[in-house]
Amino acid sequence: MKTINFYLRIIKFRIIRIFELLELAKFSFIFFLNNKNKKVNIIFDYKTLGATYGDLFSCLILIRYLLKKKFSVNVYIIKDSFRREWYKLDADQKKELLKFHNQLLQDFTYQEKINVKTISFKDMFSIDLLLSFHRTLFLIHVLLRFNICVSCLNFLNKVLIKEKIDFIDSILLSAKDFDNFIPKGFASSFNSNYVTLNIRFSPSWQTYRNTDDRIIEQSIKFIKNKYQNKNIVILTDRAGYEKYKYKLKGIDRVYFSRDFGSNSFLNDASILIHSDFYYQKLGGGLGIIAIFSRTPYRYESILNFEKIYKKNKIFSWQTNEQNFILLGYDKGIYNL
Q1: Are 68 and 109 in contact (CB under 8 A)?
Q2: 20: closest CA among 307, 273, 309, 242?
């Protein structure tokens, strides 16, 4: 039986979809009618941005796309208030995650070509920004304080349909982007003969995305049947490592990245993107790295307002070796 929340999600989904169509129309105007002065503003609002590692990558890939299209990009960051889950972090955790977000802007969007400025929400209505509202992407999202990350992904899903493969490859994440983050201990222990598996465990946050014992057992069995002679490297955070390191110890050809020097999201992302295959069922934000790469993967999860490109192909840039499998009760709303 469908609940009230289900129908509210459908309504919100339709509203967001209308906003996204308006953004595509506005972008077409900027691109085709204002070709000599191609300037774009993108605004990150921490009131809507989750306390996660992966969500921001959709926005970063969009910035890479705009830069490749010869746009001048201004990035404004609103930090005067934060989304609810940020307040569950202690001061050191919050500082570390903000530092990580800043690092992403530096390392993954060619920062020498973009202008970054921290503002308050009230600054949105300053003269300078008011005069440039017409070239601010996802302006309605920002004014209504909706998260723009999924809409960035949906935007890319649409505009990349007609792009050539070489152009798409130039903005997707590649092994070269992560060469500086590969742990030395891992590089000296493994060659390319390995596949990766994501395990997520959080005792308090979005526990429905955790990978339990049954999922882990099924995942390892699936990978071993598909890749009989390859090592399996498990990518997980500290909590997942502490929970499962002894349970999985002794399984042939199964290792944890943390046992080989990996201690950060970008370390694990580097191991993922260099692997021969990536598998994730539910799990955490690492999956976005696979989605925005050419690494073969099987990703089984529930989407969050993402717009499906077409049946059996969620993202327009997916290859035949990349499979996203929809799970869960809500999958009926994604084609609306």
Answers
A1: no
A2: 307
pLDDT at 335: 44
pLDDT of residue 28: 66
At position 50, the amino acid (one-letter code) is G
What DSSP assignment string belongs to 233-285?
A: EEE--HHHHHHHTTTSTT-TTEEEGGGGT--SHHHHHHHHHTSS-EEEES--T
Token pair, residue 85, equals 């889950």
Helices (H), strands (E): how many in the chain?
12, 9
pLDDT of amino acid 23: 74
Structure tokens at 240: 């997942």
Q: 3-class DSSP state for residue 1?
A: coil
Q: Give the per-residue pLDDT at 292.
A: 97
Give the CA distances from residue 148 to residues 39, 62, 178, 287, in Å, rounded to whole numbers and listed in that order. 19, 11, 25, 18
Can you spell out the DSSP letters for 34-91? STTS-EEEEEEETTTS-S-SSTHHHHHHHHHHHHHTT-EEEEEEE-SS--GGGGGS-H
Cα-to-chain-centroid distance, residue 250: 32
pLDDT given for residue 194 in this prediction: 95
Identify whether the C-beta of residue 155 lies closer than 8 Å to the C-beta of residue 57. no
Rounded distance, CA 138 to CA 285, Å? 23
Q: For residues 62 and 327, what is the distance between their CA atoms, to the nearest angstrom?
A: 26
Which domains can be identified in the chain, with CATH numbers? Answer: 4-171 (no CATH), 176-301 (3.40.50.11350)
Q: Is 164 left (phi over 0), alpha (psi -120 to 50) or beta?
A: beta
Radius of gyration of the chain, Cα coordinates, nearest whole angstrom = 20
Pairwise CA distance, residues 261 & 181, whole Å: 11
Please tell me the predicted confidence (pLDDT) of residue 336. Answer: 39
Question: What are the per-10-residue average pLDDT scores of the chain (336 residues)?
Answer: 66 72 69 67 93 89 93 92 91 92 87 84 84 84 89 92 96 94 86 90 79 93 93 94 91 94 94 96 90 96 80 91 79 42
- What pTM was computed for the model? 0.89
